[in-house]
Amino acid sequence: MKHFNNYIKYLLLILLVVGCRNKQERNIEFMPDMYQSPAYKTYEVAPLSPPEHTVKRGELPYRYPNTIEGYEQAKAQLHNPLATDTLQQIQNLTDGKKLYGIYCALCHGEKGDGKGVLVQREKILGVPNYKSRELTEGSIYHVLYYGRNTMPAFANQLSEKERWQVAMYVEQLRDKR
């Protein structure tokens, strides 16, 4: 009986506390950060640039500057370092064709004739075909690395090997035409 009276006292105390609260105020929140996260603006801070003269891990620095002289030097001196055995070359050309279809065909066309979808829709004008240009593997790689005129640079999208694969495929397109 004594325990029963204690239970009734505690029950009345709890009802008194619950009944006396103001129903207009918010309840107490346990761990409010779980319900309302602090707001962060995505582009509030500019992204960090790598320090000057740093090189991406696993790659060698590109020694030709983004100038006309650098383009001419790359055109004359730069050669494809990928393997030249037949089986590996076929694989590189296959990979180059896939990458060309993703990155280049929109403007340059599937055949390299400068009549891609964006040119046909007149979004970009003046895209040359590969047959009308004096191209070498070095000049193609240089343009992929830095871009030229309205063509953007693809050094950030394509690895060194992928750039060479695309250059191989562009040379093959140029020879076919």
TrEMBL record:
Cross-referenced InterPro entries: Cyt_c-like_dom, Cyt_c-like_dom_sf, Cyt_C_IC
Record PANTHER family: LIPOPROTEIN-RELATED, QUINOL:CYTOCHROME C OXIDOREDUCTASE MEMBRANE PROTEIN
Record keyword Protein biosynthesis present: no
Pfam family, one: Cytochrome_CBB3
GO molecular function, one term: heme binding
Entry keyword set: Electron transport, Heme, Iron, Metal-binding, Transport
Lineage per the UniProt record: Bacteria, Pseudomonadati, Bacteroidota, Flavobacteriia, Flavobacteriales
Domain Cytochrome c, chain residue ranges per copy: 91-174
Protein name (database record): Cytochrome c domain-containing protein
Family matches, as PROSITE patterns: CYTC, PROKAR_LIPOPROTEIN
Organism domain of life: Bacteria
